[in-house]
Amino acid sequence: MSVPGGTCRGADLVAGVAPGCRPIWYRGTWSACGLIAETVQVRIRNREGLRDPERVRRLAYGAAGLIVAVVVMTVEGGLSVPAGWARLVLPIGLGAVALRPRYRALVFAGCAGFVALVSTGESVQLGLAAAGLVFLSTCEDPARRPWSGWVVGLTGAVGALTIALLGQRGLYEQPIAFVTAGYLLAVLLRSWLHSRALTREASQLRGQAAWLEQRTNLARELHDVVGHHVTAMVVQAEAGQLSEDPGAALRAIADSGRTALSELDTLVVHLRDPDAAIAVSAPPRLSDIDELLAQPLRQQGVTVQVRLDPEPGLDEIGVLTVYRITQEALTNIARHAKATAACVELVRIGDRAHLRVSDDGIGPPPAPTRGSGLLGIEERVRARGGSWELSRRPGGGTIVQANLPVAKP
């Protein structure tokens, strides 16, 4: 039935939308959609629950215990002992729950052996109870290779077979098959649980390794970026005290401070959100080595020569690596070297880019301390598959050399 405005009601919604009609969503329609969505969520939760090792273990234990209880309580005759003796495995098994896993496994194994031993061809269902008890014993055994449930259960089954043969009651091999099945199922469950535990642990370790790598990268960037700007500010402040234009030194210090704060804000964002990529304001260029990194040294009165191969064959990460290594080397010269001249050289030889930063200062100590700066150089070079070396310069001074593979075309 059509109504003004082109909507449809009643039977139109049941049979389908009539031509020219716009369907109206009734409260019942929303309820049906909500029911469907809730059903889907329940199925997803059930599927995830079936993958939970602890839940699977509890379900398997419950099934095995239920089988044992039902079989033992319903058996009436045909045993080699009165049926009441077989029912004793229930309180004994329940009492074993309070014991340690090792002793609990032994109690379950003893019960399995007893049930298998007293069974006969007339009480074949007791084989299921023996299988359930062997299963519980094997699962609870903390040993890497559990054997008690299997050995004791098999001993009972072989004993039942021997008694049947001696009494000329025929070949009765069912307990052996049941005990073997229970043991194999337990081994499969233990293997699956162990595999899930290893997978979960490996996932956690991968997460921790990624977190540690992020922290290491962050520490390296903090040292290289902020440390360099702070060093430049100190150098500019010291130079400004002797300068005829201290205002220029103050302006340079302010510029360095603003840059340092900007880079620090970027790194703090990564601290708040570890998934955010570590990035500085702009990727450095090789030309920045001469334009930016060498300036603090020149303001100290150090002559700095920069010779860069116009085609070093480095990709963006390679350029960043060279920039950071040079930054650390020049910063150390500004802090400690007391040099009058320094030189930065980058040349490509074959499939390697060779970086050399040298000075004529006091040279490295006999046993240089591997602080954050040298450690950062080592980490960056190792990540690129290269090598580096810190050595004394002939005639006095320090040489930092790094060999990096060029980018593949």
Description:
With 409 residues, the protein is α/β, with parallel strands linked by helices. 63% of the residues lie in helices and 11% in strands. The protein has 14 helices and eight strands. A five-stranded mixed sheet has the order 4-5-6-8-7, with helices on one face. A hairpin with a 5-residue loop joins strand 7 and strand 8. Helix 6 packs antiparallel against helix 7, helix 7 runs parallel beside helix 9 and helix 9 packs across helix 13. The radius of gyration is 39 Å and the shape is rod-shaped.
Secondary-structure blueprint:
Blueprint: E1 2-3, E2 7-8, H1 11-15, E3 22-23, H2 27-50, H3 53-74, H4 83-87, H5 89-96, H6 101-118, H7 126-140, H8 148-166, H9 174-242, H10 246-272, H11 287-293, H12 295-299, E4 303-308, H13 316-337, E5 341-349, E6 352-359, H14 372-383, E7 387-392, E8 398-405
Parallel strand pairs: 2-3, 4-5
Antiparallel strand pairs: 1-2, 5-6, 6-8, 7-8
Helix pairs in contact: 3-7, 5-6, 6-7, 6-8, 7-8, 7-9, 8-9, 9-10, 9-13, 13-14
